[in-house]
Structure formats: structure tokens, C-alpha cells
Amino acid sequence: MDVHRRTVNAVVSEKYSKTKNQKLDSQSQSSLYLTNAIFFGLFFSVAYFLLHRWREKIRTSTPLHVLTISEIAGVVSLIASFIYLMAFFGIGFILHPFAASRAVQYDEEDESDIAKNSGSCLAGVAQKLPPRIPVEKVVPANLPAPVLLSMEDDEVVRAVVTGTIPSYSLESKLGDCKRAAAIRNQAVERVTGKSLSGLPMEGFDYDSILGQCCEMPIGFVQIPVGVAGPLLLDGKEYTVPMATTEGCLVASTNRGCKAIYVSGGASAVVLRDGMTRAPVVRFNSAKRASQLKFFLEDPQNFDSLSHTFNKSSRFARLQNIKATMAGKNLYIRFTCSTGDAMGMNMVSKGVQNVLDFLQSDFPDMDVIGISGNFCSDKKAAAVNWIEGRGKSVVCEAVIKEEVVKKVLKISVESLVELNMLKNLTGSAMAGALGGFNAHASNIVSAIYLATGQDPAQNVESSQCMTMMEAVNDGKDLHISVTMPSIEVGTVGGGTQLASQSACLNLLGVKGASKETPGANSRQLATIVAGSVLAGELSLMSAIAAGQLVKSHMKYNRSSKDVTKVTS
């Protein structure tokens, strides 16, 4: 009995020492929390201080590398706090699973020690202990990332459906973009009760769109890509990728490319290259607004304004500023070159720099919006049709008489007459704004989707005037397309996605031009215009020859019985 008492006392003493250690651990943990809070506060306060100081230096054109004593101390403090936080949380995150497993191991060892050392004196007590009651697993709110990583997919789906875990935070909490998209896909199915079985998940790099191309993805849409060509443009041959679901479009454009090719090719010229952004500002009076208008349009002020604007990017170069008034409101249209990027973000940053710069001389200026629709983006507008936006391109070709007859199956006279009555007179009767063409938007949209452009900018990019006339004593056909606002880029946005990047590579314009900034995007704009020329030539020939309905009935009709298709 004494042996049993001694062993029990030893176990109780050991448990007491462990309890004491746990108290010490809790005290050290409290001090650790305080240390973390201090370094967190130091990190963010110093970061705010340095950003504020550097912003003032940018506004006053002071070199950033010239540091004061306080700024040097701030930089040192920022680096020190960053190193501490990264070391602490990095090691804690890595050791978290091991610490948890060790804790479980210690608990199991404690139980086994008590059972082993207590012997028979506790055997009767152990037999009388009540059985464990199983508890249903409940997903708590605001789950930390390590806990979420250990959960099964079905548990995470239930948490998303119940709102415990926000759907938009899955990527950051899981650390796996593909898994986040799959879980969100299942959650949408459960919430809506609709099947998404036809929406593919596999075969897409979801990491490539994180934070830039698409939020809360649940899959991707498949659009077939066809090729037209070769398009012979300025002495070079291009195989043009077109992503579309409209039958006959690729085939028709391909026929136009053939007619251009056998006639010696087409040529294109870029007239202008400049992206625009037009903020709207307001003053207390129209007279005061006019003072800013005159200031902005004064050539003597352009150098200081351009210097401020150009600091936003090494590719952004301010070209001109035009301002117009509506009462006491002033609309300022900035135009700048943007290298090989389409450039909306680039020009917006430059405009913000100028607005901040103007506040010192015009403190009563109220900035209503960074965009006042005088730009004009994603809308059919006369300002784009007249002044241009993006790349302004003219493309032309002379189609020989025998090619018109053999390839296009029509006469030169019929094409010229149809173009005048349809594309020019008919569009004028409809009050068209830049719509003096047969179907330029078809080709523009297809190439934009294939090459990762912004499909919404098809609106202004498709503004086009198609002109035809008989030349060489009426035997040959001269055709041209004038497109004042083709908005394209070869870097940024969707151009970096694998499929779209492959299509840009097919055209030889992938990425930024190393020799001449902006050369690749300008070349892409000419390819778009040349493809539109081919599409216009073929469709107009089909309409003039009465083949449009027949060809669409043959190549643009599904063979499936639509009465058997269920939603």
C-alpha cells in the first residue's frame, strides 16, 4: 500500500510541476504578445512616416536617396521590425503543426503515466468512469489559416455556404488558388441549386489571375480559337488567331486574307498613338474654372506639367492636354504614350500626379472624379472618332479585277455601289457614330479575346469607316479602313495568360519590344486593322453576291435537335 501511495504522490507531484510550468508559459506568452504589439506598431507607424516623407519629396522634386537623420532612423526601424516579424511569424507558422503534435503526445504520455504508476488502486476508479460522449464537429467563425488548411473540402464548402468563411477570402486562407476555385464552385452549386457540370475546372492556372484578371473564379469558359491567313501586311505574313463562337466569321476573314495576299498584300500606317484620361473638376465659378483651362493650355506651362506627369512611369510621356467647360465644371483630357501597354492605369497615375501638383496653385479646385467620361472609355463617343484614342490606324489594299471575280465572286462595280449605299449612306441614315462599316466589331472582338485585350473596349476600337472605289480605269478595287481608336497592348492584363500569350507569340508581338518601346502594340494594332480589312472585303462580297444567307445556313447552323436540349 505504501508503494502505491508513493507512486501516486510522485505522479501528483509531477502534474503539479507541469501546472507550474504552464503558468510560467502563460506569463511568457503575455510578454510575447506585448513584444509583438510593439513591433507591429513600430512597423506600421514608421512605414506611414516614410511614405508621407517620400510623397513630399516627389511633390517637391527632392531626390529620394537624400535622407535626413529621422528618415535614416525610420529606415533602420522599419528593417528591424520587418526582420523580427518575419522571423517570429515565419518560424511560428512552420512549427505550428509540430507543436500541436507534441502537445497531443504529452497529453497521451500523461495519461499513460497515471495509468501505469497508479496500479490496482485506481483500477476500480477507472472502470467507473463514464464513457466519452461524441461531439459533432462545428466549424467556428474566423478560422485561422492553419486550422482551415487541415479541414476537408466538404467542411470548407459548408463553412462558405453558411457564411462562416467569406467566399472572397478562400485564396488567402487556403493558399491554394485551384482548391479555392473548386470549393467556391461547389458552394455556388449548393446555394443556387443549379448544376455547373459543364463549366470546366481542370487545365487552368488559377494562380495567374490572382489579384489582377478575375476575382472569385469558379472555372473558365471555353471559346474556340480559329486562324485566318496568312495576312500579307507591309511585306510580312501573319497567321491571325480569332476566338469566336460565330460560324463563318473565321472562314470569311480567311477568304479576305486570300484576296489580299494574291493581290500583293495590304499596307498600314499608325497616325497617332496615345491613351487618354479626362478627370472632371469643379470650381465656385465658371471664371475660376476658365483660369485653370487657360493655364493648362498655355505652352509655357507644358514642361512643368509633363515633368510631373511623366514621373508616374518610365514609359508614360505626356503628349497634350485639352480642356473643355460645362458651366463651372472643367473636363481635362490628358493624352500620353504608354509603351507596349494599353495604358489605362499608367495614364491614370500620371493624371493623379498632375491633379496633386495643381492643388498648390488652385487650392479651391474640387476633384469630382478621375474620369469624367470625356476620355472616353468603353463608350461610342465623337471625341474618340475625331481626336483618336489608343492607336489611330489606316489600312489599305488594291484588289485586282481577276481576284475580285475569281476569289470574291463579284464585280468591282457592285462592291463600290454596295459600300456607298450600305456603309456610308445607310449608316448615316441610322445616325451611326463611327459605325460606317459592315462588321468591324466581329473581327476586333475575336482578336481581342484571343490576345488578352479588354473586350469591353471593342466599343470604341471598332469605330471604323470602310471606303471602296474603282481604280486603274475602273478595273481594280481600292479598299481602305480608317480606325481612329484601336486600344491594344502586349503587356499587362490578360496578355500574360498562357492561352492569350500563345496567340500573341503566334503574331510575333508577345511582351514588350526591347528595341523600341511601343513597337509591338503598334504592330498589333495594324494587324487588327488589316484583319478588319479582310473581313470587310469578304462580307461585302458575300452580301453583294447574295451569298450571305446561304453561307450562314450552311456553316452557322447547329445539327443538334434543339427541342431535346434541356436547361
From TrEMBL:
Pathway: Metabolic intermediate biosynthesis; (R)-mevalonate biosynthesis; (R)-mevalonate from acetyl-CoA: step 3/3. GO terms for molecular function: hydroxymethylglutaryl-CoA reductase (NADPH) activity. It is a multi-pass membrane protein. Pfam families: HMG-CoA_red. Its EC number is 1.1.1.34. One of its GO terms (biological process) is sterol biosynthetic process. GO terms for cellular component: endoplasmic reticulum membrane; peroxisomal membrane; plastid membrane. The chain crosses the membrane at residues 32-51, 72-95. SUPFAM superfamilies: NAD-binding domain of HMG-CoA reductase, Substrate-binding domain of HMG-CoA reductase. Keywords: Endoplasmic reticulum, Glycoprotein, Isoprene biosynthesis, Membrane, NADP, Oxidoreductase, Transmembrane, Transmembrane helix. Its main location: endoplasmic reticulum. It comes from the Eukaryota. CDD domains: HMG-CoA_reductase_classI. It catalyses: (R)-mevalonate + 2 NADP(+) + CoA = (3S)-3-hydroxy-3-methylglutaryl-CoA + 2 NADPH + 2 H(+). The keyword Endoplasmic reticulum applies. InterPro entries: HMG_CoA_Rdtase, HMG_CoA_Rdtase_cat_sf, HMG_CoA_Rdtase_CS, HMG_CoA_Rdtase_eu_arc, HMG_CoA_Rdtase_N, HMG_CoA_Rdtase_NAD(P)-bd_sf, HMG_CoA_Rdtase_sub-bd_dom_sf. It is found in: Endoplasmic reticulum membrane; Plastid membrane. Belongs to the HMG-CoA reductase family. PANTHER family: 3-HYDROXY-3-METHYLGLUTARYL COENZYME A REDUCTASE, 3-HYDROXY-3-METHYLGLUTARYL-COENZYME A REDUCTASE. NCBIfam families: HMG_CoA_R_NADP. This is 3-hydroxy-3-methylglutaryl coenzyme A reductase. It comes from Medicago truncatula. The gene is 11416526.
